[in-house]
Design goal:
4-stranded mixed beta sheet, globular, alpha/beta
């Protein structure tokens, strides 16, 4: 992104370049600074938007890019004659106050269609209440917050009225609050919206209850992306996941039971980490054995992250 931005500024110096999103937090002023990314080298960028960007972007579009105009935009880091000025922090936005996204300009775009296919992107929450050792989400988004059930249902109804019934949730975790998710599912069933949806789910204790999993399935849940990572409890504890495998087996057995009751299966997309800091061959074998045992409950191995030996040794030392 930085390389493309530099080329654009060289060819079209009059074009303003704004960057935002969690990625900019690896810059030297960010929440996870990386010494390789120094803003002093990126004077071809006109501004960075930090935190929730919806209001920040609108205010930038309404501004005339004068110093007095930019100075008043919260959440903005902007280039003033080669020196970056850091404005006041933008408070978290009220997610329920945002209008529903309009994807109409993207619907015929090849990349949009190849990514989402027949699914509509949906966001119900931001952040994550958990603190897995390898995850950057809590650093980028320290506060876990979610929309009201009624506003999410209103957005779904908006899309259903446009002929869309399949959704993919872009939340870091859709069951960060099991109570919220239960209420959401009950409302979907009550309104008979007949949609399908999926997203990232932690293997929560609530999922050990068969009736709870049946509720999720009845409400339209079809695909659960789960950070399973490993079937070794010592590895999971080191990751700060604190997952007990007896409970995980109950969850997978519930899915197996539900799939005997329905033609359209409920399945996991598995995320695995291999070579974690304290993982040995026996730990890895437990993961392989579990995948083999419950492969019928798995749609795919979505991601397989391998931590190389030099990285492990550097982290351990």
């Amino acid at each position: 992104t930085l390389a493309i931005a530099r080329l654009i500024k060289e060819k079209y110096p009059h074009i303003k370049i704004l960057m935002g999103g969690n990625g900019i937090e690896v810059l030297d002023f960010g929440k996870l600074p990386n010494s390789s990314y120094k803003t002093s080298e990126y004077t071809f960028i006109d501004a960075f938007s930090r935190g929730d960007g919806e209001i920040t972007l609108v205010e930038i579009l309404k501004s005339d890019w004068s110093e007095s105009s930019l100075m008043n935009i919260k959440g903005l880091v902007w280039n003033c004659n080669g020196v970056f000025i850091h404005n006041k922090t933008r408070p978290n936005i009220d997610m329920d106050s945002l209008p529903f996204p309009d994807y109409s300009a993207l619907e015929d775009n090849y990349y949009y269609k190849s990514t989402y296919q027949y699914n509509v992107p949906l966001v119900m929450s931001r952040g994550c209440p958990y603190r897995c050792s390898f995850c950057s989400v809590p650093d980028f988004i320290p506060e876990f917050r979610y929309r009201k059930v009624e506003t999410v249902i209103e957005e779904i109804e908006y899309w259903v009225n446009k002929g869309n019934t399949n959704f993919f949730c872009h939340d870091s975790i859709i069951n960060g609050s099991p109570r919220w998710l239960k209420e959401f599912c009950e409302e979907l069933i009550k309104k008979e919206l007949n949609i399908t949806w999926g997203g990232n789910m932690r293997l929560q204790p609530a999922m050990r209850d068969l009736d709870t999993m049946r509720l999720y399935r009845k409400a339209g849940l079809r695909k659960m992306i789960t950070g399973f990572e490993s079937a070794s409890e010592p590895v999971l504890e080191h990751m700060k996941k604190y997952t007990k495998m007896d409970g995980v087996r109950e969850i997978f057995e519930n899915v197996r039971q539900i799939n005997t009751e329905n033609k359209d299966p409920l399945q996991f997309a598995m995320q695995l980490i291999v070579g974690y800091l304290n993982e040995g061959e026996d730990d890895f074998q437990r993961t392989l054995d579990f995948v083999e045992e419950y492969h019928d409950c798995m749609a795919e191995i979505l991601s397989l992250i391998h931590i190389s030996e030099p990285t492990r040794q550097a982290e351990i030392s």
